[in-house]
Every structure is written in structure tokens, then in C-alpha cells.
């Protein structure tokens, strides 16, 4: 289900430690669309995602989400965006269930709504058996699934996933793909940043490739047979052959 634009990024730039990390970046994203964000180490992916999650302010440019200026209204990000950063921020002394309720409350839900939402996501991600387990004793893959659950708990309009398959076993990678497609089918937009091109080919509708902070490629992807072509574009850009 692909409808009208949800996210519009217009000429966004941001320096880090005095150097350009993202420069003049523009792209848009529709509801129901899954976007793969690719680029070599240091290309600017995490910086871009942090700005889209409302955790880092662009120095210039504009980001609209659902037609509202997101940069000057941080509350929009809190309610409408779910973000799984590269290292999910978890509290070792809180249980799995307590995390989910706390994240849902932070996203503006009432206590009753938060409990219901936590139950839903625990069931969907098959985390029910771990609900009372403290985050500090979870395995790496379990921590990653909890981070994903925290990003999903308020059914965000924009779901941002930074290397979500990290530490997941092959069964859980399959589950992750299903969850991503389910969220898109429900009308959310999803951004998936990964170094695994096969993950992009498996779940994404479109691909953006960043290089040295700039957008170098933005094109649709069909899930059948585009792996070799994507790899070609990626390596051409990464090695400068496409300059
Ligand atoms: N906290 C920070 N302080 C200073 N510089 C930073 C910081 N985070 C990122 N940078 C710099 O900004 C640039 C873009 O980094 P970013 O983390 O956005 O890239 P990335 O594409 O996510 O890389 P990777 O694939 O290695 O995760 C890099 O030059 C990096 O060194």
C-alpha cells in the first residue's frame, strides 16, 4: 500500500566534529514504503537516521513528517517515529516488559494503553517468555529483539532501523523481514540501514546510497533479480567509479 508522501527531507546538512557528515541531503518517503539506506563506513547513514529520529538537529535544511515541520516541533518525532539505533539503549536493571511500558509511556501513551501495546509487541516478537527477564542478562540477539520491540511499541508512522539484523540468528532474521513488511502493509514507512545488501534486496522497495554525506543513488528496487545490479551500483559509488 503506497500512498502520499509521509517524510520529506530537503537540503539537510550536518557537521560532526567540525567536518561535514551529511551534506545537502534530499529525499522523500511514502507511507507503506521500505527504504534501504546504504553506504560505506562513515558515509553518513547513522547521522541521517539520528536526525530523522529527532535525536540530532540538522544545521540547515528542512524535515517534514506528515506535512509538519519536524525540526522545530520535536514532539512529532517522539510520537510518530520509532528508532532502533545501532546499539539499542537499554537499562540493565529493567525487565523486558518494563522497557516496553516505559518506551510506550515516553511516546505519549497512557498507562493502560502502554500495557496493552507492550502485550501486543511481546506476543508479535515472541518475547512473552522473556517478559520478566532483566535486560542486563539477555543474550545479544535477545537485546536486539528488545530494542526492536521498543521501536515498534507505539506503532510508529516512521520506523527507523539501524543494522536491525545484528546478532540475530537466521530464524530471527526471517521474522524481522516479516515484521518490516507487516509494518509497511499497515501503512508505516520504514528506513532500513544495513551493510548486508541481501537484506535490502529481500525487503526494500527503494534504495538510497550515501557517499561522503551526499546522496549518490535513489532508485526503486524489485525484490526479484536486482541483487547483482544493486551490488554493481554500490561498488561503483564506493570505489569512485561512478563519480
Ligand atoms: N559522535 C560523533 N562525533 C564526531 N564525529 C562523528 C560522530 N559520529 C559520526 N561522526 C563522523 O561523521 C561522519 C559520518 O558518520 P556516520 O556514523 O553517520 O556514518 P555511517 O554511514 O553510519 O558509518 P558506519 O557504517 O561506519 O556506521 C564520519 O566521518 C564520522 O567520523
From TrEMBL:
<dbReference type="GO" id="GO:0005524">
    <property type="term" value="F:ATP binding"/>
</dbReference>
<keyword id="KW-0813">Transport</keyword>
<comment type="similarity">
    <text>Belongs to the ABC transporter superfamily.</text>
</comment>
<dbReference type="InterPro" id="IPR017871">
    <property type="entry name" value="ABC_transporter-like_CS"/>
</dbReference>
<keyword id="KW-0547">Nucleotide-binding</keyword>
<dbReference type="InterPro" id="IPR027417">
    <property type="entry name" value="P-loop_NTPase"/>
</dbReference>
<dbReference type="InterPro" id="IPR003593">
    <property type="entry name" value="AAA+_ATPase"/>
</dbReference>
<keyword id="KW-0067">ATP-binding</keyword>
<protein>
    <submittedName>
        <fullName>ABC transporter ATP-binding protein</fullName>
    </submittedName>
</protein>
<dbReference type="Pfam" id="PF00005">
    <property type="entry name" value="ABC_tran"/>
</dbReference>
<feature type="domain" description="ABC transporter">
    <location>
        <begin position="7"/>
        <end position="237"/>
    </location>
</feature>
<dbReference type="InterPro" id="IPR003439">
    <property type="entry name" value="ABC_transporter-like_ATP-bd"/>
</dbReference>
Amino acid at each position: 500500500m503506497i500512498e502520499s508522501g509521509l517524510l520529506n527531507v530537503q537540503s539537510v546538512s550536518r557537521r560532526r566534529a567540525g567536518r561535514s557528515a551529511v551534506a545537502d541531503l534530499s529525499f522523500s518517503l511514502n507511507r507503506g514504503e521500505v527504504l534501504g539506506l546504504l553506504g560505506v563506513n562513515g558515509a553518513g547513514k547513522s547521522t541521517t537516521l539520528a536526525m530523522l529520529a529527532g535525536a540530532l538537529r540538522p544545521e540547515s535544511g528542512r524535515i517534514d513528517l506528515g506535512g509538519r515541520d519536524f525540526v522545530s516541533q520535536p514532539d512529532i518525532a517522539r510520537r510518530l517515529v520509532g528508532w532502533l539505533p545501532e546499539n539499542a539503549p537499554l537499562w540493565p536493571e529493567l525487565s523486558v516488559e518494563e522497557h516496553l511500558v516505559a518506551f510506550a509511556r515516553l511516546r505519549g501513551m497512557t498507562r493502560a494503553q502502554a500495557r496493552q501495546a507492550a502485550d501486543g509487541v511481546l506476543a508479535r516478537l515472541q518475547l512473552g517468555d522473556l517478559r520478566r527477564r532483566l535486560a542486563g542478562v539477555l543474550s545479544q540477539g535477545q537485546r536486539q529483539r528488545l530494542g526492536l520491540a521498543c521501536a515498534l511499541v507505539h506503532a510508529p508512522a516512521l520506523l527507523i532501523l539501524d543494522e536491525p539484523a545484528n546478532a540475530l540468528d537466521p530464524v530471527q532474521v526471517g521474522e524481522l523481514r516479516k515484521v518490516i513488511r507487516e509494518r509497511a502493509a499497515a501503512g508505516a514507512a520504514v528506513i532500513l540501514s544495513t551493510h548486508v545488501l541481501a537484506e535490502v534486496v529481500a525487503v526494500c522497495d527503494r534504495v538510497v546510497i550515501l557517499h561522503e554525506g551526499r546522496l549518490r543513488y535513489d532508485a526503486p528496487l524489485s525484490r526479484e533479480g536486482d541483487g547483482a545490479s544493486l551490488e554493481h551500483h554500490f561498488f561503483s559509488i564506493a570505489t569512485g567509479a561512478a563519480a
